[in-house]
Design brief:
heterodimer, A: 212 residues, mainly alpha, 3 helical TM bundles of succinate and fumarate reductases, 7 helices, B: 254 residues, alpha+beta, Ubiquitin-like (UB roll), Fumarate Reductase Iron-sulfur Protein, Chain B, domain 2, 2 domains, 5-stranded mixed β-sheet, two-stranded antiparallel sheet, 35% helix, 15% strand
């Protein structure tokens, strides 16, 4: 605690990192919601899904969107990675503190580190398999979900929604004046809703995959 | 006949070279209105006079009896045995220097914190005992008092996962203490000067909002509101900051 900090750094760096982590996180959650509402169109049939997919691609919205989300994700990883405990001893410290107090919020964050790293790997795989199978079409997605990737997508969905839920909750805890219990309930309800939308989309894709 | 209480207490006296860290179990009968302070005093009087623990005020005002009671940072004097299970574990607060058994030195930590962050009223006016104290409006005084209620027991520090991995982080106690000077109209420091102390990873931008501090504060301080307030105010100060010369330009005039 007594170590003096070097004075030659930009004093605003830590603030910018904090704001970047916050902003990019909110934008990524926004993306997850938009993504969910795009995918769920498959419930109304393959043609609805394809029409939307083609429309977005025609105006380069998909391509620009993927590039943007990639950049935002890089900014997010870059700004929040500084929080990840380094080394075994630090990880053990965090889990021990959470464990000794049986403290939900500390556990919540400790798990956010795990889910964040899981998303890094799983989302990269997801983007890769979508890109090599370009363009996005309902039948291709359905076949993928039905054949090999159902479990993969269920896991990706759960870790992504967990990470975003806890992330949003903590950002509101940090910046806003809302009671934590109400906040937890509101975020929980929102996550439950978006999970339901995504599960509906997965179910529709799986069924479509069975038919074809 | 009261309940039979079993206390597993951490024993280690670093100044007595021959002892080894370990747990020792004591049994005693619960009496009405018993708190951990009374239980420990009885153990010391009836079982083992060498047991070390800190107590001064017995009324949750001095902040010396912070310890881990069943893993949670609590004040011994404010924790009643009737709220505890029949078997209870007592550990000293982590992160602070261990004096022995349940006694830790929080004073050095808090003194270093104060020195490092300049946690006192900065004013150019000399103290004159002959004139009346300046008046302050009640609302401001109450806000300052809310932060000033902190007794520096160290429970929030022990409960903060961030301090456990980053020992330069000043924690809720440090940020709350500085919030008090942010609110005080008598403090002549500019926003930029406050930012220099608070606007870093060791200050408010190191906080991850885990709320271990607030959930374990024995004084029920509104730590989350304080942290959010400091975070918002320091972000505004950081965004408006124009470099070193700002320090004098923005200084409050009185």
């Amino acid at each position: 605690m007594v170590r003096a900090k070097a004075l030659d750094q930009n004093p605003r760096t830590d603030m910018y990192l904090e704001l970047t982590g916050f902003t990019s996180g909110i934008l990524l959650v926004g993306f997850l919601w938009v993504h969910a509402f795009f995918v769920v169109t498959v419930i109304f049939g393959a043609s609805t899904f394809n029409t939307l997919s083609r429309f977005l691609e025609q105006y380069y919205l998909t391509q620009v969107g993927i590039a943007l989300v990639f950049l935002i994700a890089v900014a997010h990883i870059g700004s929040v990675a500084r929080r990840i405990p380094t080394g075994f001893r630090e990880h053990r410290s965090v889990w021990r503190v959470a464990g000794m107090m049986r403290h939900t919020d500390t556990y919540g964050w400790a798990l956010q580190v795990v889910t964040g790293l899981a998303i890094l790997v799983l989302a990269a795989i997801h983007i890769w398999v979508v890109l090599i199978d370009w363009p996005i079409e309902a039948v291709k997605s359905a076949r993928r979900v039905q054949a090999d990737y159902l479990l993969f997508y269920i896991i990706l969905l759960l870790v992504a929604e967990y990470h975003s839920g806890v992330g949003i909750y903590r950002q509101f805890v940090k910046w806003a004046k809302i009671r934590r219990r109400s906040l937890g309930l509101a975020v929980g309800a929102a996550i439950a809703f978006i999970l339901a939308v995504n599960v509906g989309a997965l179910w529709a894709l799986f069924r479509l995959g069975c038919i074809r | 006949m009261g309940r039979k209480l079993t206390l597993d207490i951490f024993r280690y006296n670093p100044s007595a070279g021959w002892t080894k860290p370990g747990m020792q179990t004591f049994e005693l009968e619960e009496t009405p209105g018993m708190n951990v302070f009374i239980a420990l005093t009885r153990i010391r009087e009836e079982h083992d006079p060498s047991l070390l623990f800190d107590f001064v005020c017995r009324t949750a005002l001095c902040g010396s009896c912070g310890m881990l009671i069943n893993g949670k940072p609590r004040l011994g004097c404010k924790t009643f045995t009737r709220d505890l299970p029949a078997r209870t574990t007592l550990f000293p607060l982590p992160l602070f220097k261990l004096i022995g058994d349940l006694s830790v030195d929080t004073g050095t930590w808090f003194r270093l914190l104060a020195l490092r962050t300049g946690a006192w009223l900065h004013t150019s006016r000399a103290f004159a005992h002959s004139i009346l104290e300046e008046r302050m409006d009640n609302e401001t005084a109450l806000k300052i008092f809310e932060a000033d209620r902190c007794i520096e027991c160290g429970c929030c520090i022990a409960a903060c996962a961030k301090v456990h991995v980053q020992d330069e982080f000043i924690g809720a106690a440090g940020i709350n203490r500085l919030a008090r000077f942010l609110l005080d109209p008598r403090d002549e420091r500019s926003e930029a000067q406050h930012y220099e102390v608070l606007g870093s990873e060791d200050g408010i931008f190191g906080c991850m909002g885990l709320m271990g501090c607030m959930d374990n504060c024995p004084k029920d301080l509104p730590l989350r509101d304080q942290l959010a307030y400091v975070r918002r105010r320091m972000t505004a100060a950081g965004l408006a900051w124009g470099g070193k010369e700002d320090g004098s330009r923005n200084r409050k005039t009185k």
